[in-house]
Task: inverse folding
């Protein structure tokens, strides 16, 4: 989630970033998060300061507020984390 949060200020246009833990748990109830231009717009509308959340290593409540957290529940494997970046 922190990687996605850190990438938000750099997202432009139709870029998308996704980060997901394969065990369904990223040190919180979220398995990860997805970020795109809508996430940036929602954060602005909600007056969420990305840098403040980053400084506090507190990405979970940020993505709870923007509703961009990925919830899968616990999964039976823990192979690795998956990162996907789509840039148009």
Result:
């Amino acid at each position: 989630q922190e990687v996605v949060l850190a990438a938000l200020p750099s997202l432009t246009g139709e870029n998308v970033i996704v980060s997901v833990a394969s065990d369904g748990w990223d040190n919180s109830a979220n398995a990860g998060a997805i970020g795109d231009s809508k996430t940036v717009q929602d954060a602005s509308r909600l007056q969420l300061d990305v840098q403040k959340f980053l400084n506090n290593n507190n990405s979970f409540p940020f993505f709870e507020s923007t509703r961009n957290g990925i919830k899968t529940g616990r999964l039976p494997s823990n192979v690795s984390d998956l990162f996907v970046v789509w840039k148009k």
Remarks:
- The chain has a mean pLDDT of 90.
- Residues 49 and 55 are 10 Å apart (CA to CA).
- The first strand starts at residue 16 and ends at 21.
